[in-house]
């Protein structure tokens, strides 16, 4: 393993953030996309976080 690869593995987290979705009406968050919010029925569900890929 090169020095650069060791440094990357030390500085990057072992887990990656996933995609998170949030209802703009009620603030409920979800792990998967929904056409309508199961909590309040609003059709305004938007992506709030996305993948943060680890460099290879």
From TrEMBL:
Domain called Putative zinc-ribbon: residue spans: 20-43
Gene3D superfamilies linked: RNA polymerase ii, chain L
Official protein name in the record: Zinc ribbon domain-containing protein
Organism placement in taxonomy: Archaea, Methanobacteriati, Methanobacteriota, Stenosarchaea group, Halobacteria
